[in-house]
Structure to design on (818 residues):
């Protein structure tokens, strides 16, 4: 069968693009960790599998294919299904935030929105400002565009929004229950960020996958609502780019997210999406639409909030019992993560990860949330994936790993 | 609700990335054209909707969710579901082409594979060699990386594979029923391309969405088979990167494609996919896997070949009746397209498109398949989407449009 006369040579292949020399493989390790038996995964950002609405979705998918065969199985508009865009525009509109479907782009996961934003905004070397520490996936998404990243601690005493946004292509924030710290950006800081974006014109990305997971009350206003027009008749045209997803609210396997932005930005992102995957699956879009229209999303949310509040409490109690000697943390009021900071600056969490894996527990070291990789004194701990007994056992293993690390120093 | 004290300003927004100044919107026009009433769309590359296996897929999706809830609805491995990768490795393995799952990456559509290849191989300004005329979607996918494109006519008398591949990061070909021309790359040219790739180490992308749509016989060997190892025990490690998709074989709405390549390339693409959409939907992957395992794909293929052969004949007969005065073409032996070349060099197909739309028929002008936009003497005509009477009516409208154009000159 092989009619070629020459042997296969692998020497002298062209070099890969330069950014590939600068990647981390931690996310891949985390996703693969799911298949290691007995390992307790406190590292990822995975929802509780028992919240997946299996029976409802099995019925919904069959129904939407039979009712909408061309839309679910054929090619569709790059921007997303018309009905889904209309539904999202209506869902996020308020008296002062006037959204039309032209303000909405459906994306193949929230991650794709980050990728598309990098494509349309970044030339190589462009400066951006990122809430620090920064969501690992955002750093992954933008790495091929090779931006210069300005780390900004939104909760530091000398935070200056105008200085933070000065001269950058965009600023990036996860205002609700930030990945990785689980903290909320305060209302005064939100105002400062929005005012700085409005004054400078700089794009401000509001990435909000966790906003619906508030255990104790209401979130401060969204950035995009703070930036909405005073003229209620006017369609939204502000500099805030809001990102949402169904991954934490219905099911990650649907890979459905969305962007809410000015029409100018939606049009640019649409051109980028055209060359990225042409269009998002009409099947998974229709399923998401069905869940949005028929209350499924609210029923899951209410169960998720109750379940995750309980698991947060279990984790924080276990941390107090087993780990307070070495770490300090704030109790998060929502989201999926506790951010545990080492009391001893000699406690290096990159080093800790190796001991943790040997003790069959996986955690996320702070270095992966820092574009420079230099922050090595904290851990992101997920409390949503595991049932209480596994959370407690995971924290105990982490205590063993920490003890081994500190004794080996 | 609006606590901001400043008005919304839109002036002085940061500029978009430089590549956005250089995009075309033709694909978007085509996708949107589907919603214009009475317009006959000969422009796209859409499969016949009557071939969509609606009932079978409606049953399959329900079944796979109930049987595999975590895999279909949760996050999955970046590289794709293990079972799907194994099935694809087995399906494409031969006595001399030894594939393991590490040679396979599942992608969110064939388009995503092109996007990922651009990300991992191209720095700004890198040279690539493209079969000319070139698939529009590939040009869209690579535009954000700003390559320098070397147009290569594989069927020209002075074609020189070694010269074509010299110094480029990769070469790109659609060997079977090329988009846009519908032609096959001949067996001698395939050998020449593969030999040049093996000798130089240059990556050679074999994009094969149409290979299963051969109406009259067998395709020449795949490039990847020509490059396979003589040593049958050795895992594939050659420079050919093969791209497949279920879009033309099962349903585009699943957005499932795959890459077959050396493990080195698969690993690089996986890093790029991590920052692009994290993972492909487990739901649509499981549906594709089910269709691959249970013969659905073969039953659709056999119906597609019969239906499309008939429609090709209808289109070519209508062209002979109504358009032979102005155009010449080869009868394609497979795929989805006829490439009609203007006899008169004054017949500009960009100009023709305007007349065509006025006559309620949409066609693809050759300029969109040329990175420089200068080829304006041909049309790509799709014969798979429409039933015979619409194909004939579409060709008649195209004849009216051509007559109007030529009379207005």
């Amino acid at each position: 069968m092989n009619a070629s006369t020459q042997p296969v040579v692998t020497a002298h292949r062209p070099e890969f693009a330069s950014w590939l020399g600068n990647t981390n493989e931690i996310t891949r390790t985390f996703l693969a960790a799911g298949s290691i038996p007995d390992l307790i995964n406190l590292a990822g950002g995975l929802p509780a599998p028992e919240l997946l609405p299996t029976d409802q979705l099995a019925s919904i998918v069959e129904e939407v294919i039979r009712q909408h065969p061309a839309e679910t199985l054929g090619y569709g508009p790059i921007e997303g299904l018309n009905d889904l865009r209309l539904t999202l525009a209506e869902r996020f509109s308020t008296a002062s935030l006037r959204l039309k479907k032209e303000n909405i782009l459906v994306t193949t996961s929230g991650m794709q929105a980050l990728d598309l934003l990098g494509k349309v905004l970044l030339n190589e070397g462009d400066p951006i400002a990122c809430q620090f520490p920064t969501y690992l996936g955002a750093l992954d998404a933008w790495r091929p565009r090779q931006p210069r990243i300005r780390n900004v601690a939104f909760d530091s005493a000398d935070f200056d929004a105008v200085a933070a946004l000065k001269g950058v292509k965009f600023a990036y924030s996860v205002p609700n229950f930030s990945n990785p710290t689980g903290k909320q950006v305060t209302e005064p800081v939100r105002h400062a960020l929005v005012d700085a974006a409005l004054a400078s014109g700089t794009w401000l990305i509001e990435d909000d996958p966790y906003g619906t997971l508030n255990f104790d009350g209401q979130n401060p206003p969204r950035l995009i609502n703070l930036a909405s027009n005073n003229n209620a008749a006017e369609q939204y045209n502000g500099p805030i780019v809001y990102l949402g997803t169904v991954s934490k609210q219905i099911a990650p396997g649907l890979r459905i997210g969305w962007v809410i932005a000015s029409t100018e930005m939606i049009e640019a992102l649409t051109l980028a999406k055209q060359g990225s995957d042409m269009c998002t699956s009409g099947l998974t879009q229709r399923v998401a639409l069905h869940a949005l229209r028929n209350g499924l999303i609210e029923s899951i949310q209410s169960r998720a909030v109750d379940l995750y509040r309980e698991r947060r409490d279990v984790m924080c109690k276990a941390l107090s019992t087993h780990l307070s000697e070495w770490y300090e943390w704030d109790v998060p009021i929502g989201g999926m993560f506790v951010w545990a900071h080492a009391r001893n600056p000699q406690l290096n969490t990159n080093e800790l990860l190796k001991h943790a894996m040997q003790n069959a527990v996986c955690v996320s070291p702070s270095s992966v949330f820092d574009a420079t990789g230099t922050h090595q004194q904290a851990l992101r701990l997920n409390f949503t994936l595991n049932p209480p007994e596994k959370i407690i056992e995971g924290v105990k293993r982490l205590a063993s790993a920490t003890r081994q690390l500190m004794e080996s120093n």
Remarks:
- The longest helix of chain A spans residues 296-322.
- The first strand of chain A starts at residue 40 and ends at 41.
- Residues 46 and 385 of chain A are 6 Å apart (CA to CA).
